[in-house]
Protein backbone atom coordinates (compact mmCIF):
# COMPACT_ATOMS: atom_id res chain seq x y z
CA UNK A 1 0.00 0.00 0.00
CA UNK A 2 2.74 2.45 1.05
CA UNK A 3 4.86 1.78 -2.04
CA UNK A 4 1.92 1.95 -4.45
CA UNK A 5 0.65 5.20 -3.02
CA UNK A 6 4.19 6.63 -2.98
CA UNK A 7 4.81 5.79 -6.63
CA UNK A 8 1.46 7.24 -7.69
CA UNK A 9 2.03 10.53 -5.88
CA UNK A 10 5.54 10.97 -7.35
CA UNK A 11 4.22 10.31 -10.86
CA UNK A 12 1.20 12.57 -10.46
CA UNK A 13 3.40 15.39 -9.15
CA UNK A 14 6.20 15.11 -11.67
CA UNK A 15 6.83 18.85 -11.81
CA UNK A 16 7.41 19.07 -8.08
CA UNK A 17 9.61 15.99 -8.13
CA UNK A 18 11.71 17.30 -11.02
CA UNK A 19 12.23 20.75 -9.48
CA UNK A 20 13.19 19.37 -6.07
CA UNK A 21 15.48 16.75 -7.61
CA UNK A 22 17.28 19.24 -9.87
CA UNK A 23 17.83 21.69 -7.01
CA UNK A 24 19.21 18.92 -4.82
CA UNK A 25 21.33 17.55 -7.66
CA UNK A 26 23.04 20.88 -8.36
CA UNK A 27 23.79 21.45 -4.69
CA UNK A 28 25.16 17.95 -4.10
CA UNK A 29 27.14 18.02 -7.35
CA UNK A 30 28.79 21.26 -6.25
CA UNK A 31 29.58 19.83 -2.82
CA UNK A 32 31.23 16.79 -4.41
CA UNK A 33 33.27 18.91 -6.82
CA UNK A 34 34.45 21.37 -4.14
CA UNK A 35 35.46 18.57 -1.76
CA UNK A 36 37.31 16.74 -4.52
CA UNK A 37 39.21 19.83 -5.69
CA UNK A 38 40.03 20.65 -2.07
CA UNK A 39 41.56 17.17 -1.66
CA UNK A 40 43.53 17.73 -4.88
CA UNK A 41 44.90 21.06 -3.60
CA UNK A 42 45.93 19.44 -0.32
CA UNK A 43 47.78 16.77 -2.27
CA UNK A 44 49.51 19.44 -4.35
CA UNK A 45 50.55 21.29 -1.19
CA UNK A 46 52.01 18.08 0.23
CA UNK A 47 54.18 17.60 -2.87
CA UNK A 48 55.60 21.11 -2.45
CA UNK A 49 56.21 20.68 1.28
CA UNK A 50 57.84 17.30 0.75
CA UNK A 51 60.95 18.76 -0.89
CA UNK A 52 61.38 21.59 1.62
CA UNK A 53 60.48 19.97 4.93
CA UNK A 54 60.79 16.30 4.10
CA UNK A 55 57.13 15.86 4.89
CA UNK A 56 56.41 12.18 4.61
CA UNK A 57 55.26 12.33 8.22
CA UNK A 58 52.45 13.84 10.28
CA UNK A 59 54.35 16.08 12.71
CA UNK A 60 57.75 17.79 12.80
CA UNK A 61 59.46 19.06 15.94
CA UNK A 62 62.23 21.65 16.02
CA UNK A 63 63.60 24.43 18.19
CA UNK A 64 63.23 28.11 17.32
CA UNK A 65 66.45 29.64 15.99
CA UNK A 66 68.40 31.27 18.81
CA UNK A 67 70.45 34.44 18.47
CA UNK A 68 74.22 33.79 18.59
CA UNK A 69 75.85 34.51 21.94
CA UNK A 70 78.65 37.04 22.23
CA UNK A 71 82.03 35.58 21.45
CA UNK A 72 80.59 32.36 20.07
CA UNK A 73 82.16 30.88 16.95
CA UNK A 74 79.47 31.23 14.25
CA UNK A 75 80.88 28.32 12.31
CA UNK A 76 81.82 28.18 8.66
CA UNK A 77 85.20 29.88 9.29
CA UNK A 78 88.42 28.61 7.76
CA UNK A 79 91.85 28.85 9.39
CA UNK A 80 95.09 28.06 7.56
CA UNK A 81 98.46 27.76 9.27
CA UNK A 82 101.87 28.56 7.81
CA UNK A 83 102.25 24.98 6.62
CA UNK A 84 98.82 24.61 5.11
CA UNK A 85 98.35 23.75 1.47
CA UNK A 86 100.69 22.41 -1.17
CA UNK A 87 103.19 24.71 -2.88
CA UNK A 88 104.43 24.16 -6.41
CA UNK A 89 105.89 26.58 -8.97
CA UNK A 90 105.44 29.58 -6.71
CA UNK A 91 101.73 28.81 -6.12
CA UNK A 92 100.16 27.53 -2.89
CA UNK A 93 96.96 25.52 -3.32
CA UNK A 94 94.64 25.50 -0.30
CA UNK A 95 91.54 23.40 0.37
CA UNK A 96 89.48 22.92 3.52
CA UNK A 97 85.97 21.70 4.39
CA UNK A 98 83.86 22.47 7.43
CA UNK A 99 80.64 20.80 8.52
CA UNK A 100 78.49 22.90 10.82
CA UNK A 101 74.91 23.17 11.99
CA UNK A 102 72.80 25.69 10.12
CA UNK A 103 72.91 29.16 11.64
CA UNK A 104 69.14 29.36 11.32
CA UNK A 105 68.42 26.15 13.23
CA UNK A 106 68.94 25.38 16.89
CA UNK A 107 70.22 21.96 17.84
CA UNK A 108 68.88 20.28 20.96
CA UNK A 109 69.59 17.14 22.96
CA UNK A 110 68.53 13.91 21.27
CA UNK A 111 67.03 12.77 24.61
CA UNK A 112 63.90 14.59 23.40
CA UNK A 113 63.45 11.75 20.89
CA UNK A 114 62.83 9.27 23.72
CA UNK A 115 60.19 11.62 25.14
CA UNK A 116 58.47 11.77 21.76
CA UNK A 117 58.57 8.02 21.26
CA UNK A 118 57.01 7.52 24.68
CA UNK A 119 54.07 9.85 23.97
CA UNK A 120 50.69 8.17 23.53
CA UNK A 121 49.51 8.07 19.93
CA UNK A 122 52.99 8.16 18.38
CA UNK A 123 53.56 5.31 15.93
CA UNK A 124 57.14 6.12 14.88
CA UNK A 125 59.65 8.93 15.36
CA UNK A 126 63.20 9.66 14.23
CA UNK A 127 65.69 12.46 14.75
CA UNK A 128 67.80 14.24 12.14
CA UNK A 129 70.64 16.77 12.22
CA UNK A 130 70.62 19.45 9.52
CA UNK A 131 74.11 20.59 8.55
CA UNK A 132 75.87 22.65 5.92
CA UNK A 133 79.16 21.62 4.36
CA UNK A 134 81.33 24.48 3.10
CA UNK A 135 84.50 23.88 1.13
CA UNK A 136 87.10 26.57 0.55
CA UNK A 137 89.55 26.01 -2.29
CA UNK A 138 91.92 28.48 -3.86
CA UNK A 139 95.34 29.37 -5.22
CA UNK A 140 97.61 31.96 -3.64
CA UNK A 141 101.17 33.10 -4.27
CA UNK A 142 103.81 31.07 -2.43
CA UNK A 143 103.37 32.07 1.24
CA UNK A 144 107.12 31.99 1.88
CA UNK A 145 107.88 34.73 -0.68
CA UNK A 146 105.07 37.23 -0.10
CA UNK A 147 106.15 38.56 3.29
CA UNK A 148 103.33 36.94 5.27
CA UNK A 149 101.43 33.75 5.81
CA UNK A 150 97.79 32.88 6.24
CA UNK A 151 98.11 32.82 10.04
CA UNK A 152 99.73 36.26 10.22
CA UNK A 153 103.37 35.17 10.68
CA UNK A 154 106.18 36.53 8.50
CA UNK A 155 107.80 34.38 5.83
CA UNK A 156 111.51 33.53 6.16
CA UNK A 157 112.61 34.40 2.67
CA UNK A 158 111.17 37.91 2.54
CA UNK A 159 109.25 39.76 -0.17
CA UNK A 160 110.38 40.22 -3.77
CA UNK A 161 113.12 42.85 -4.31
CA UNK A 162 112.04 46.38 -5.13
CA UNK A 163 111.00 46.72 -8.76
CA UNK A 164 110.78 42.97 -9.20
CA UNK A 165 107.45 41.78 -10.66
CA UNK A 166 105.55 39.36 -8.39
CA UNK A 167 105.25 35.80 -9.53
CA UNK A 168 103.21 32.74 -8.64
CA UNK A 169 99.56 32.60 -7.65
CA UNK A 170 96.53 31.77 -9.76
CA UNK A 171 97.59 33.98 -12.68
CA UNK A 172 101.37 33.56 -12.34
CA UNK A 173 101.72 37.24 -11.46
CA UNK A 174 101.05 37.15 -7.74
CA UNK A 175 97.26 36.98 -8.08
CA UNK A 176 94.87 34.93 -5.97
CA UNK A 177 91.68 33.02 -6.72
CA UNK A 178 89.39 31.09 -4.44
CA UNK A 179 85.97 29.48 -4.45
CA UNK A 180 83.52 28.47 -1.73
CA UNK A 181 81.17 25.58 -2.38
CA UNK A 182 78.24 24.91 -0.10
CA UNK A 183 75.76 22.03 0.07
CA UNK A 184 73.35 20.68 2.66
CA UNK A 185 73.93 17.50 4.62
CA UNK A 186 71.33 15.65 6.68
CA UNK A 187 72.34 13.23 9.38
CA UNK A 188 69.68 10.58 10.00
CA UNK A 189 69.16 7.25 11.66
CA UNK A 190 69.73 4.61 8.93
CA UNK A 191 67.28 2.28 10.71
CA UNK A 192 64.43 4.81 10.68
CA UNK A 193 63.69 5.09 6.96
CA UNK A 194 59.96 4.44 7.53
CA UNK A 195 59.53 7.96 8.87
CA UNK A 196 61.23 11.24 7.99
CA UNK A 197 62.78 12.69 4.82
CA UNK A 198 63.82 9.39 3.23
CA UNK A 199 60.33 7.91 3.66
CA UNK A 200 59.09 10.03 0.74
CA UNK A 201 61.78 9.53 -1.90
CA UNK A 202 62.38 7.22 -4.83
CA UNK A 203 65.63 5.26 -5.11
CA UNK A 204 67.35 6.33 -8.33
CA UNK A 205 70.59 4.34 -8.20
CA UNK A 206 72.40 2.12 -5.71
CA UNK A 207 70.78 1.66 -2.33
CA UNK A 208 69.50 3.55 0.69
CA UNK A 209 71.24 3.71 4.04
CA UNK A 210 70.43 0.80 6.36
CA UNK A 211 71.40 -0.52 9.77
CA UNK A 212 74.79 -1.71 8.47
CA UNK A 213 75.74 1.91 7.70
CA UNK A 214 75.73 3.07 11.33
CA UNK A 215 79.18 4.50 12.07
CA UNK A 216 80.35 4.27 8.44
CA UNK A 217 81.39 7.02 6.03
CA UNK A 218 78.70 6.23 3.47
CA UNK A 219 76.47 8.82 1.84
CA UNK A 220 73.30 8.91 -0.28
CA UNK A 221 72.90 11.91 -2.60
CA UNK A 222 69.97 13.73 -4.09
CA UNK A 223 70.06 12.74 -7.76
CA UNK A 224 69.74 16.34 -9.03
CA UNK A 225 72.62 17.47 -6.85
CA UNK A 226 74.72 14.46 -7.87
CA UNK A 227 74.21 15.34 -11.54
CA UNK A 228 75.11 19.02 -11.05
CA UNK A 229 78.20 18.11 -9.02
CA UNK A 230 79.27 15.33 -11.46
CA UNK A 231 79.03 12.66 -8.76
CA UNK A 232 77.74 9.10 -9.10
CA UNK A 233 77.09 5.97 -7.10
CA UNK A 234 80.35 4.15 -6.37
CA UNK A 235 82.37 7.36 -6.30
CA UNK A 236 83.62 9.39 -3.37
CA UNK A 237 83.16 12.92 -2.08
CA UNK A 238 84.53 15.08 0.72
CA UNK A 239 82.24 15.98 3.61
CA UNK A 240 83.72 17.87 6.54
CA UNK A 241 87.26 16.82 5.56
CA UNK A 242 86.35 13.12 5.47
CA UNK A 243 86.09 11.00 2.33
CA UNK A 244 82.65 9.41 1.95
CA UNK A 245 81.63 6.60 -0.38
CA UNK A 246 78.48 7.30 -2.43
CA UNK A 247 76.24 4.24 -2.06
CA UNK A 248 73.11 5.55 -3.80
CA UNK A 249 71.09 8.46 -5.14
CA UNK A 250 67.45 9.37 -4.52
CA UNK A 251 64.90 11.57 -6.25
CA UNK A 252 61.72 13.30 -5.13
CA UNK A 253 58.45 11.39 -5.46
CA UNK A 254 56.66 14.68 -6.10
CA UNK A 255 56.87 17.00 -9.08
CA UNK A 256 59.77 18.93 -7.56
CA UNK A 257 63.28 18.06 -8.68
CA UNK A 258 65.01 18.05 -5.27
CA UNK A 259 64.61 16.24 -1.99
CA UNK A 260 64.99 17.54 1.57
CA UNK A 261 68.81 17.67 1.40
CA UNK A 262 71.72 17.33 -0.99
CA UNK A 263 73.42 14.55 0.99
CA UNK A 264 72.31 12.02 3.62
CA UNK A 265 74.78 10.44 6.07
CA UNK A 266 74.42 8.34 9.27
CA UNK A 267 73.35 10.47 12.24
CA UNK A 268 76.16 9.35 14.56
CA UNK A 269 78.78 10.25 11.93
CA UNK A 270 77.14 13.63 11.32
CA UNK A 271 77.16 14.39 15.05
CA UNK A 272 80.85 13.50 15.36
CA UNK A 273 82.09 15.40 12.28
CA UNK A 274 80.14 18.55 13.16
CA UNK A 275 81.04 18.45 16.87
CA UNK A 276 77.38 18.05 17.81
CA UNK A 277 77.56 14.81 19.78
CA UNK A 278 74.17 13.87 21.20
CA UNK A 279 72.40 16.69 19.35
CA UNK A 280 69.68 16.81 16.70
CA UNK A 281 67.82 19.62 14.93
CA UNK A 282 64.50 18.00 13.96
CA UNK A 283 62.26 15.12 14.97
CA UNK A 284 59.81 13.59 12.48
CA UNK A 285 56.73 11.87 13.90
CA UNK A 286 54.05 9.58 12.50
CA UNK A 287 50.80 9.32 14.44
CA UNK A 288 49.24 5.92 15.02
CA UNK A 289 45.91 7.27 13.74
CA UNK A 290 45.68 9.99 11.11
CA UNK A 291 42.59 11.36 12.82
CA UNK A 292 44.54 11.94 16.04
CA UNK A 293 47.30 14.14 14.60
CA UNK A 294 46.12 17.31 16.34
CA UNK A 295 45.71 15.49 19.66
CA UNK A 296 49.19 13.97 19.41
CA UNK A 297 50.66 17.35 18.43
CA UNK A 298 49.11 18.94 21.51
CA UNK A 299 50.50 16.17 23.73
CA UNK A 300 53.98 16.61 22.24
CA UNK A 301 53.82 20.36 22.76
CA UNK A 302 52.96 19.78 26.42
CA UNK A 303 55.82 17.28 26.79
CA UNK A 304 58.30 19.60 25.03
CA UNK A 305 57.14 23.13 25.95
CA UNK A 306 60.15 24.90 24.41
CA UNK A 307 59.89 23.07 21.09
CA UNK A 308 58.07 24.11 17.92
CA UNK A 309 55.57 21.37 17.03
CA UNK A 310 54.16 21.63 13.50
CA UNK A 311 51.67 19.49 11.62
CA UNK A 312 51.35 19.27 7.85
CA UNK A 313 48.40 21.65 8.09
CA UNK A 314 50.64 24.19 9.84
CA UNK A 315 53.35 23.85 7.21
CA UNK A 316 50.80 24.18 4.41
CA UNK A 317 50.24 27.78 5.46
CA UNK A 318 53.77 28.57 4.26
CA UNK A 319 52.97 27.62 0.67
CA UNK A 320 52.62 30.62 -1.62
CA UNK A 321 51.91 31.21 -5.31
CA UNK A 322 48.80 30.26 -7.27
CA UNK A 323 48.56 27.07 -5.19
CA UNK A 324 47.99 29.20 -2.08
CA UNK A 325 45.43 31.29 -3.96
CA UNK A 326 43.55 28.17 -5.03
CA UNK A 327 43.58 26.86 -1.47
CA UNK A 328 42.19 30.13 -0.10
CA UNK A 329 39.56 30.26 -2.83
CA UNK A 330 38.30 26.77 -2.05
CA UNK A 331 38.48 27.27 1.71
CA UNK A 332 36.50 30.50 1.53
CA UNK A 333 34.44 30.99 -1.64
CA UNK A 334 34.05 27.30 -2.51
CA UNK A 335 32.97 26.21 0.96
CA UNK A 336 30.55 29.07 1.49
CA UNK A 337 29.12 28.70 -2.00
CA UNK A 338 28.47 25.02 -1.34
CA UNK A 339 26.75 25.83 1.95
CA UNK A 340 24.57 28.53 0.38
CA UNK A 341 23.55 26.38 -2.58
CA UNK A 342 22.84 23.42 -0.31
CA UNK A 343 20.73 25.62 2.00
CA UNK A 344 18.84 26.96 -1.04
CA UNK A 345 18.18 23.41 -2.26
CA UNK A 346 16.87 22.37 1.15
CA UNK A 347 14.68 25.48 1.30
CA UNK A 348 13.24 24.78 -2.17
CA UNK A 349 12.49 21.19 -1.16
CA UNK A 350 10.75 22.35 2.04
CA UNK A 351 8.69 25.05 0.30
CA UNK A 352 7.55 22.76 -2.50
CA UNK A 353 6.69 20.02 -0.02
CA UNK A 354 4.61 22.44 2.09
CA UNK A 355 2.98 23.78 -1.07
CA UNK A 356 2.14 20.23 -2.12
CA UNK A 357 0.66 19.46 1.27
CA UNK A 358 -1.52 22.58 1.01
CA UNK A 359 -2.84 21.49 -2.35
CA UNK A 360 -3.58 18.02 -0.96
CA UNK A 361 -5.63 19.26 2.01
CA UNK A 362 -8.81 17.43 0.95
CA UNK A 363 -6.82 14.27 0.23
CA UNK A 364 -5.26 14.19 3.69
CA UNK A 365 -8.61 15.01 5.28
CA UNK A 366 -10.17 12.05 3.54
CA UNK A 367 -7.30 9.75 4.57
CA UNK A 368 -7.64 10.80 8.20
CA UNK A 369 -11.40 10.34 7.97
CA UNK A 370 -10.95 6.71 6.84
CA UNK A 371 -8.58 5.97 9.71
CA UNK A 372 -5.05 7.05 8.75
CA UNK A 373 -3.06 8.04 11.82
CA UNK A 374 -0.93 11.17 12.02
CA UNK A 375 2.17 9.00 12.09
CA UNK A 376 1.18 7.25 8.86
CA UNK A 377 0.53 10.56 7.10
CA UNK A 378 3.89 11.98 8.24
CA UNK A 379 5.61 8.78 7.06
CA UNK A 380 3.90 9.04 3.68
CA UNK A 381 4.96 12.67 3.10
CA UNK A 382 8.47 12.02 4.46
CA UNK A 383 8.83 8.94 2.24
CA UNK A 384 7.94 10.95 -0.85
CA UNK A 385 10.45 13.68 0.09
CA UNK A 386 13.24 11.19 0.82
CA UNK A 387 12.73 9.52 -2.57
CA UNK A 388 12.83 12.93 -4.26
CA UNK A 389 16.03 13.71 -2.33
CA UNK A 390 17.60 10.38 -3.33
CA UNK A 391 16.73 10.99 -6.98
CA UNK A 392 18.38 14.40 -6.70
CA UNK A 393 21.35 12.84 -4.89
CA UNK A 394 21.84 10.24 -7.62
CA UNK A 395 21.75 12.93 -10.32
CA UNK A 396 24.03 15.11 -8.17
CA UNK A 397 26.60 12.33 -7.88
CA UNK A 398 26.65 11.97 -11.65
CA UNK A 399 26.97 15.76 -12.08
CA UNK A 400 29.79 15.89 -9.52
CA UNK A 401 31.68 13.01 -11.14
CA UNK A 402 31.35 14.63 -14.56
CA UNK A 403 32.74 17.86 -13.08
CA UNK A 404 35.69 15.95 -11.56
CA UNK A 405 36.40 14.25 -14.90
CA UNK A 406 36.37 17.63 -16.66
CA UNK A 407 38.82 19.09 -14.11
CA UNK A 408 41.16 16.10 -14.49
CA UNK A 409 41.02 16.29 -18.29
CA UNK A 410 41.81 20.01 -18.24
CA UNK A 411 44.50 19.30 -15.61
CA UNK A 412 45.11 22.92 -14.56
CA UNK A 413 48.63 23.68 -13.37
CA UNK A 414 49.38 25.57 -10.18
CA UNK A 415 52.68 27.06 -9.08
CA UNK A 416 53.69 26.61 -5.48
CA UNK A 417 56.67 27.57 -3.36
CA UNK A 418 57.56 27.13 0.28
CA UNK A 419 60.36 29.04 1.94
CA UNK A 420 62.59 28.00 4.78
CA UNK A 421 65.55 29.98 6.02
CA UNK A 422 68.76 28.05 5.56
CA UNK A 423 72.37 28.51 4.70
CA UNK A 424 73.18 29.29 1.11
CA UNK A 425 73.46 26.38 -1.23
CA UNK A 426 70.52 24.44 0.19
CA UNK A 427 68.14 22.62 -2.08
CA UNK A 428 65.79 25.51 -2.32
CA UNK A 429 68.60 27.80 -3.43
CA UNK A 430 69.72 25.60 -6.23
CA UNK A 431 71.40 22.86 -4.26
CA UNK A 432 74.36 22.73 -6.58
CA UNK A 433 77.99 23.44 -5.97
CA UNK A 434 78.98 27.01 -5.42
CA UNK A 435 75.54 28.03 -4.27
CA UNK A 436 75.43 31.22 -2.24
CA UNK A 437 78.08 33.35 -0.69
CA UNK A 438 80.76 32.58 1.83
CA UNK A 439 78.81 31.12 4.74
CA UNK A 440 75.85 33.38 4.01
CA UNK A 441 72.38 32.69 5.30
CA UNK A 442 69.61 32.92 2.77
CA UNK A 443 65.92 32.28 2.41
CA UNK A 444 65.73 29.03 0.47
CA UNK A 445 62.68 28.78 -1.72
CA UNK A 446 61.63 25.53 -3.35
CA UNK A 447 59.33 26.33 -6.23
CA UNK A 448 57.50 23.83 -8.35
CA UNK A 449 54.61 23.55 -10.77
CA UNK A 450 52.03 20.91 -9.94
CA UNK A 451 49.14 19.52 -11.95
CA UNK A 452 45.85 19.64 -10.07
CA UNK A 453 44.16 16.26 -9.97
CA UNK A 454 40.79 15.98 -8.22
CA UNK A 455 40.46 12.52 -6.62
CA UNK A 456 37.21 10.62 -6.16
CA UNK A 457 36.78 9.08 -2.73
CA UNK A 458 34.08 6.88 -1.24
CA UNK A 459 33.78 9.40 1.60
CA UNK A 460 32.63 12.13 -0.78
CA UNK A 461 29.99 9.82 -2.29
CA UNK A 462 28.73 8.85 1.16
CA UNK A 463 28.52 12.53 2.13
CA UNK A 464 26.42 13.17 -0.99
CA UNK A 465 24.01 10.34 -0.16
CA UNK A 466 23.74 11.53 3.45
CA UNK A 467 22.96 15.09 2.31
CA UNK A 468 20.29 13.82 -0.08
CA UNK A 469 18.62 11.79 2.68
CA UNK A 470 18.95 14.70 5.12
CA UNK A 471 17.33 17.13 2.68
CA UNK A 472 14.46 14.73 2.02
CA UNK A 473 13.90 14.00 5.69
CA UNK A 474 13.96 17.69 6.58
CA UNK A 475 11.44 18.62 3.89
CA UNK A 476 9.30 15.56 4.63
CA UNK A 477 9.28 16.14 8.37
CA UNK A 478 8.11 19.75 8.04
CA UNK A 479 5.57 18.93 5.34
CA UNK A 480 4.34 15.87 7.19
CA UNK A 481 3.97 17.83 10.42
CA UNK A 482 1.81 20.37 8.58
CA UNK A 483 -0.33 17.61 7.08
CA UNK A 484 -0.73 15.86 10.44
CA UNK A 485 -2.14 19.04 12.01
CA UNK A 486 -5.16 18.98 9.67
CA UNK A 487 -8.46 17.92 11.25
CA UNK A 488 -10.61 15.72 9.01
CA UNK A 489 -13.76 17.89 9.18
CA UNK A 490 -11.89 21.16 8.63
CA UNK A 491 -9.85 19.65 5.80
CA UNK A 492 -12.98 18.42 4.01
CA UNK A 493 -14.75 21.77 4.44
CA UNK A 494 -11.69 23.76 3.18
CA UNK A 495 -12.05 22.45 -0.37
CA UNK A 496 -15.39 22.88 -2.14
Overall, the morphology is elongated
The number of distinct β-strands equals 19
**Low-pLDDT segments, ≥5 res:** 70-74, 146-150, 152-159, 420-445
End-to-end separation: 28 Å
Per DSSP, what share of the residues sits in E-state strands of 2 or more residues? Answer: 25-35%
Instruction: Let me know the average pLDDT.
Output: 73
Rounded radius of gyration (Å): 35 Å
Structural class: alpha+beta
Give the biggest sheet: 12 strands, mixed
Task: Give the number of helices.
Answer: 12
Q: Determine the fraction of residues in helical runs and give it as a percent range.
A: 40-55%
What does it look like?
The chain has 496 residues and is of the alpha+beta class. It is built from twelve helices and 19 strands. The strands form four sheets. Strands 1, 2, 3, 5, 8, 9, 10, 11, 12, 13, 15 and 16 form a twelve-stranded mixed sheet that branches. Strand 11 and strand 12 form a beta hairpin. Helix 2 runs antiparallel to helix 11 (458-484), helix 8 runs parallel beside helix 11 and helix 9 packs antiparallel against helix 12. Residues 70-74, 146-150, 152-159 and 420-445 have low confidence and may be disordered.
Key features of this structure:
496 residues; alpha+beta; 12-stranded mixed β-sheet; 3-stranded antiparallel β-sheet; 12 helices; 19 strands
Amino acid sequence: MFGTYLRRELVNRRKQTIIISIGMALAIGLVILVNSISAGVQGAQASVLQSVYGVGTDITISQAAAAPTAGANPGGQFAFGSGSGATSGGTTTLSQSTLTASRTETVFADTALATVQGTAGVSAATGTLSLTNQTFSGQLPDQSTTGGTADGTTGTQGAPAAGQAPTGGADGAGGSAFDVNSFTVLGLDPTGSSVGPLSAVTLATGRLLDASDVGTDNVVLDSSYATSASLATGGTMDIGGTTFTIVGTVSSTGSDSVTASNAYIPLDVAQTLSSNAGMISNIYVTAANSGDVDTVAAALQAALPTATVSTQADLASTVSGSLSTASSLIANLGTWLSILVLAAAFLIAILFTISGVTRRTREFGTLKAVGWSNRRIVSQVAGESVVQGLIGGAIGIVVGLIGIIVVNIIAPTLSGSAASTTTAGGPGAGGGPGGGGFGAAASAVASTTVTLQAPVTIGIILIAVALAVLGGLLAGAIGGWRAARLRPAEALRSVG
